[in-house]
Amino acid sequence: MIKLNREPEPQYMIDNKATWLGALKAAIANYGSYKKIPEKEKQKLISHYRNDSVRSALIKSSFGKCAFCECIPSEGGNFEIEHFKPKSIYPDLTFDWVNFLPACRKCNGSKDSHDTGAEPIINPYDIDPKYVFYFEDIVIKAVESPLKETADKTIEVCGLNTVRLWKPRAEILVSLRIFSRAIEEAIEELKNADTERKKVNRVKKLREAVETIETLTSSREKYSSFCRHFLENSEAYHKAKWLLENA
Ligand SMILES: [Zn+2]
User: Fold this and answer.
1) Are 21 and 91 in the same domain?
2) Which ranges form a coiled coil (predicted)?
3) Mean pLDDT of residues grouped by 10 in the chain (247 residues)?
4) CA 100-103-109 angle, 5° bins
């Protein structure tokens, strides 16, 4: 999970949300509760937000990734427009732009109708996840902080420590180890450069190795928070950065 910034609310929402909410509230009053509205009628009343302008603004804000697990949903399914506070419990927020998140089917399904009002979880638009999560090997954990309980709940509710995420993290970990070794080798070669020409070439090689590993931490890359955590804790990477700054 990485920090996300909301895109401006699509005009389509601004122009229509009051009307849609009015109709939904009338149905709730008519049937007695949101849950009692017949399914077919309910779908007709709420489906307005499933719109391309809404979907694309959300996907843009999350760099094409699931806001929770950072997978790329288009690779294995579709994006779903997730209500942070479930519409079944908070129908007034059905068309509320700040209540929307782009999520993969797995996270959305896992979160289901968890009541985030009663038991909050981390919303990456509002809280920077880098201060509340860390990784131990391929396992995501909650940092000891006032938000620990919220972070632990997020891991549980979204299923962030399940095999579907351990597998890709393990694969990336192998790549990160390979790139780290390339950096270590480049550092060693630079140390042994006995002519200016060799030094220049080896600095270049080291810079390329560092740039290669850094591409994995770009917000556009899947599971970038995992890669960022790895690099922040990589001695070889910090040593290489220091050497390049002082070369
Ligand atoms: Zn997800």
Assistant:
1) yes
2) 176-203
3) 98 97 97 96 96 94 96 79 95 97 94 94 97 96 97 97 96 93 91 91 92 93 96 94 90
4) 105
Helix axes 11-31, 52-61, angle to 10 degrees: 110
- The token pair that represents 215 in the structure block: 């591409």
Q: How many domains does the chain have?
A: 2
How many angstroms separate the alpha carbon of residue 8 from the centre of ligand 1?
23
> Containing domain of residue 100, as a range?
11-127
Q: Which residues surround ligand 1, an ion (CB under 5 A)?
A: 66, 68-69, 104, 107
Nearest alpha carbon to residue 125 among 144, 153, 106, 97: 97
CA of 30 to the centre of ligand 1 (A): 36
DSSP string, 67-92: TTT---HHHHS-EEEEESS-TTT-GG
- Is residue 211 within 8 Å of 204, Cβ to Cβ? no
Q: Rg of the chain over CA atoms, in angstroms? A: 23
